[in-house]
From TrEMBL:
Signal peptide extent: none
Record gene name: radA
Record-linked InterPro entries: AAA+_ATPase, DNA_repair_RadA, Lon_proteolytic, P-loop_NTPase, RecA_ATP-bd, Ribosomal_Su5_D2-typ_SF, Ribsml_uS5_D2-typ_fold_subgr, Rubredoxin_2
Region named Lon-protease-like: 368-474
Domain notes: The middle region has homology to RecA with ATPase motifs including the RadA KNRFG motif, while the C-terminus is homologous to Lon protease.
Residues engaged in binding ATP: 101-108
Name this protein carries in UniProt: DNA repair protein RadA
Chain positions covered by the region annotation Disordered: 44-64
Amino acid sequence: MSPTTTKPARARTAYRCAECGWTTPKWVGRCGECQAWGTVEETTAGQPASRAPASLAPSSPARPIHEVDVDAARARSTGVSELDRVLGGGIVPGAVVLLAGEPGVGKSTLLLDVAARAAEVSAGAPAGGAGAGRPVLYVTGEESASQVRLRAERIGALTPNLLLAAETDLATLLGHVDAAEPSLLVVDSVQTIADGSIDGSAGGVSQVRAVASALINVAKTRDIPVLLVGHVTKDGSIAGPRVLEHLVDVVCQFEGDRHSRLRMVRAVKNRYGPTDEVGCFDLGDAGITGLADPSGLFLSGARQAVPGTCVTVSLEGRRPMPTEIQALVAPSTLSSPRRTTSGVDSSRVAMTLAVLQSRLGANIAASDVYVSTVGGARAVEPAVDLAVALALISAATQRPLDPTMIAVGEVGLTGDVRTTVGVQRRLAEAARLGFSRALVPAQGSGDLQRVPGMTVRPVENLHEAVELSGVAGT
């Protein structure tokens, strides 16, 4: 009998999610693991493993780490001090920065201002310096060149060393880079650029991955810093594949309320600096400007005693932000009284109300309660609980608090006042603005350094804080 012959195993087709790696034998439009749409791609399973690649001689030998030159990786200022603060002192040559934010928040305006300032610095740099004489290239895929020019005229960003191109094709964009040899490249936005060799429309998973990889390769091989604008989804996360955030060096989130002029930039990921810094900007008709001292934006400016107001100091990254909490307690005609909040965490306000009723006997269960911040500030950290509680007690008793007093601390369900981080920085900022009294948690207060002009009163629980604030008698 002739020996039996075995047929080679056929390659089995499977489908894999490009986001999380989940596999399925059939194609589906939505990943069953991470619930992302359009990320499941065809792959081949069961094929024999490929041979290991042959080794190649390196172009340059490996060197001891202390002999590697670090001057080329020094951060250089963008010309916008608040953005430099977030990036860790400036932008590093060859770094790729992704700036994401909601539509209309001011991403394009900010980067156009950065591009104009960088172009002026490059034009005035001494011969032989880094980027001397090299232009800045701004590529827009969302607007025409004339539309961008109108914005540049409005914000004062017209400079001869700033080159502008309206392109949506990746190959043409790379051609502009070859021709201009810029010192800085701005792409607005990465979701509007398409690679003709990749199937799918611009903004798709494969397209965004290919475009980002090509731009990162340009940045690393030519030491050109690249600023990318990214879109966000309805829940605020960055649109496109998650791998985009892993590929870039810095991910910044641009935040702001449409009804407020204040804009904040915070770093979500930063390979060259901290991620706990926040940059503040004022978006107006004449463009966007940095706010080195935004403290006054969140205070009403009134120093007279008004019931229902209490000032606290929240932390945005490392930056202390004095914020005024306002509360109103009014009789209700409804079977279920209203609980309305703005700028504060509604769940923490509900817990604070429960603590006031249970531990202090405050009779506000049948009243409408409104709690808000001044100036559109967001004070959602637990450290503002004490200020919220005192503002509510003040509003309920119609007894005003001392306008020169601040309150910082987290309120527990037992009525105790818990410690929080950065108390020393909060006190220093409050003293700088003229506040002279502070209620702080007793735990850890012994380690606080004396702040000139500030009287600090440690409190153990909410009852003690109400007694010291002068609104007792609920």
